[in-house]
Amino acid sequence: MNKILLLCLWITTTLFSVEIPIEHTTERTFGKSVELNAKVIQLSNAKQSIMSLVSGHIEKYYVSPGQKVKAGQKIAIIESIMLSKMTADYISVKKQFSALSKNYEATKRLYDKGMTSMQELNLQSIQKNAMSARITTLRSQLQTLGIEAGSLKAASADYVLYAHSDGTVSELLQPLHSVIGEDTAVVSIVKDQSFYFKSFLPIEYADEVKIGQKIVVKHNKTTIVTHITQVLPELDEEIQRIVVLSNINENINNLYINAYVPTVLYFDATQKHVAVKKSALSFFNNEWVVFVPIEKDDKNSDIHEEEFESPYEARVIEIIETDELFAGVKGIELNEMYVSDKSYYVKSMILKSSLGDGD
User: Fold this and answer.
1) N or C: which end of the chain has fewer CB within 10 A?
2) What is the pLDDT of residues 206-221, one digit of tens each?
3) pLDDT tens by residue, 320-338
4) Terminal Cα distance for the chain, rounded
């Protein structure tokens, strides 16, 4: 019995020692909201294939399926005779252009002194310009392959594939050490930020749904805020509901394609209500309540504390509208003080007080 009394005393002391946050109610503008069912999908353009623009031999993969990659990260290296020849040609042509430029300058000096003909000078100019055009063509081709021609010091057969955007490696499409041709898909990558919620909206809301409206879902202890990007022109045939797509602009762990999740669509805000934080709401005696402080006389405060009377009371409210953080309610006045969080402690106080000392 003594242990039980000590435990009750410890619990009561703990409850009264917890700092309970108190705030004033505010006025906020709310829009109507509706709970929906949504499916996690990925649009067809979310998956991209990394192509090899040269023929060659796959020497090495730097990634594996399921691996996260960043834009510009190395994907694979391909040994290509084609690239080796192209880089060798570029270096050779640059050397030839340098020699032709020197010959042209020498011929021009001779022409200025009347020691050679205009025909010879023109011939040297044509050869130099042709070589310059050849250099420009090769440089452009190398740049298309992602190779900076200006930094080339020697011929190279190594062609490196890079990721074009952030994402996850879906599949290695070609076996290691296989020989591939030009324009061959080597690796498949699913781009990040390519997940969408495909929400199904009752047809009676057709006149209220708009692009840009907010759709929120709580998934895996994470609140995901999305916005409508598309309202599809056709109803879902099976359930006869409007289909809306909202894009997910953040990386969410354990978000699986084809999974169904509950979502909430918030329409444009138009109505003002007295608002409390959603963390203040509590279900007590089969009703929604908000706990408010009780004003007490100072001379009676010590007696009340000894009797374990709670300094709070439950105020029954009606929830009108909600958003992610606040609820518009009836039953409490504007600027009235209320318990904004840790309402479970207050509920415990009230329950303890209602039991009485004998219990």
Assistant:
1) N
2) 988 988 888 988 777 7
3) 888 878 999 999 999 999 9
4) 12
Element (H, E) at 12: helix 2-17
Structure tokens, 259? 């999974």
CA–CA dist 258, 247 (Å, integer):
15
* Strand order across the beta sheet in which 56-61 lies: 158-162, 74-79, 56-61, 179-180
Establish how many alpha carbons lie within 13 A of residue 28's alpha carbon, considering only the half-sphere containing its beta carbon.
20
> If 0-12 CB within 10 Å is exposed, 13-18 middle and 19+ buried, where does residue 84 land?
middle
Q: Per this entry, what is the length of the chain? A: 359
**pLDDT value of position 296:** 65
Specify the pTM: 0.46
Give the list of residues 6+ apart from residue 170 with CB closer than 8 angstroms, or none: 47, 65, 188, 189, 190
More confident: 248 or 76: 76
pLDDT tens per residue across span 270-327: 788 999 999 999 998 899 999 999 876 544 445 444 455 678 899 999 998 888 789 9
Given the structure tokens 């509920």, which residue do they identify? 347
CA–CA separation, 209 and 244 (whole Å): 9
CA distance 184 to 306: 81
Pairing mode, if any, of strands 56-61 and 179-180? Answer: antiparallel
Write the CB contacts of 309 (distance below 8 Å, at least 6 apart in sequence): 353
Structure tokens at 4: 């039980």
Write out the two tokens for 55: 């023929």
How would residue 359 be classed by pLDDT, with cut points 50, 70 and 90? very low
- Compute the distance between CA of residue 99 and CA of residue 84 in angstroms, rounded to an integer: 23
Contact 186, 199 (CB under 8 A): no
Structure tokens at 53: 């623009």
> What is the rounded distance in angstroms from the CA atom of residue 266 to the CA atom of residue 142?
51
Question: What is the CB-side half-sphere exposure of residue 6 using CA atoms within 13 A?
Answer: 3
Reference 337, options 19, 23, 20, 21; nearest CA is 23
